Model the fold of this input.
Amino acid sequence: MKTLALLLMVLCQDASPFRLPVIDATPPAPQPVEPKPVTTLPEDSFFVVQSDKPAIILHSPDGLLNVTEDQGPIRLRGKFAGGSGKVETKTFDGKYVYTIEGLKSGKAELILIPSGVTSSDQIVRLMLSVNAGPQPPPDDEKRPKPEPKPTPHSGKVHLDIIEDVNNRTADTSIVLKQVVQWAELIDAGNSYLIRDKDSSAAKLMAADYAGNDLPVVIVRDKESKKALRVMPLPKEFETLQRLVKEVAGE
Amino acid sequence: MSEIEQIIDECGEVRRLGSLMPPAGFVSAFNTFESEKPLWDDNDIRKVLSKNLPTCRDIFGPEWVHDQKSHGSCNGYAGAGALQAARWMRGIRDKLKLSGAYLYSKINGGADNGSALEDGLRAVQQYGIAPADLVTWDMIYPREQPKTANEEAAKHKGFKCYAVQTKQGFRTAVAAGFPVIVAVHAGANFQRPNSAGIVKADNGRGNHAVFVLGAKIINGTECYDLQNSWNTRFGTDGRVYATWDSFEQTFGNHTVYAVASTDDAGVDR
Done:
């Protein structure tokens, strides 16, 4: 808004050497229509700046705009920013005519510095939305993050069983030593690992089971390793089997 | 170092008995199982054993049994067997067999004259154990081993391993499901299990290292499932049951230890 206000102020100043494109006013309007500055540069259009003085035209970032300088008056045929949107022929009678074309879509800053500038008021700065065809994908960092979708899990699970081996109880031991049942779980395409709480891997998983007493079971999707459920290690293997099937969606 | 004992096994092979006793008055430098873990009472131990859960012989086929052959490397093989069993019990099912010769090479002092369990316990945690297909039974000195042996060994270490100093500690460790490396005295009785597969104790302070994984109650007695490293012709596919009698004399003379957890590069680091 600040830029726009500055631009309008510049346009209203007779002292400004620049004449910028404005949107064509509609003739039958009963009230005088204030010209609106052009802030977009459509595909295949020219943004033409006329000046009575030679000027330096700066633009950034690089690669979005191309600026050519001509001495006026000059007659140009093409589409013009702020024009009808159709091919037109226009005559620009400024001593210096700067024709700006969009090369790549994006937001570009244009700074017009007249020769012999004595005051910052004489410098015009404006932002142009350049639309040069299909929009490139935005930067990853700026791209709006999609809503996380529920991860479809593979139906096979991996169990991380975190325990304190120094405090393994008889009940825990009974469950962990049911090797036939564990083998069945593996044969069904699942996997498990018993980890001591002090192992580096268990420490890395601490956030997954924070607030739970040990031993704890982290049921993960076998492929994505995403934690699907965190639960105490049941005292009966049958209970563990039932819960695993429930989580796996069997 | 004096020459170690040897016997001829039931199959006629010479077996060097390489579990050396530490000097008199020796105190283990390691944390003891009893100081780190609350010991279970008889009710807890019986509760677990009464479930008749699978023991070593039920879990591991004959292919898991090692053969130390003519070297005094029993200590290395007991440690390797225990570590590979502990890995499996944790859920690591890569069927990796570990090298007793490698572990022995780290603790034999450059001579094939046996080793002490205390040193085995230290090396399991410090160096780890290389795969058996990389360091074969006869490579008992580092110079004979592939250059990658140490690197591969470091991928498979003991994590929490404890010296076990009491009968109740031993029973607790076994009932909890931890492999325990023990010393037995290998004489004639050790090689002749009865019809139930149970061996009687031989008199002696312990000359041979094996490991125990699990126990069953047979005829009202706790019988520990013991895996030897004398190939599968020993006992039943390489295993026998032993009662506490077989360890009573050796306990206190050797640093019996339990492998409570392992540290494996592929899954822990």
Confidence is low (pLDDT under 50) at residues 1-13 of chain A. Chain A touches chain B at residues 161, 165-170, 173-174, 176-180, 182, 186, 191-196, 198-201 (CB under 8 Å).
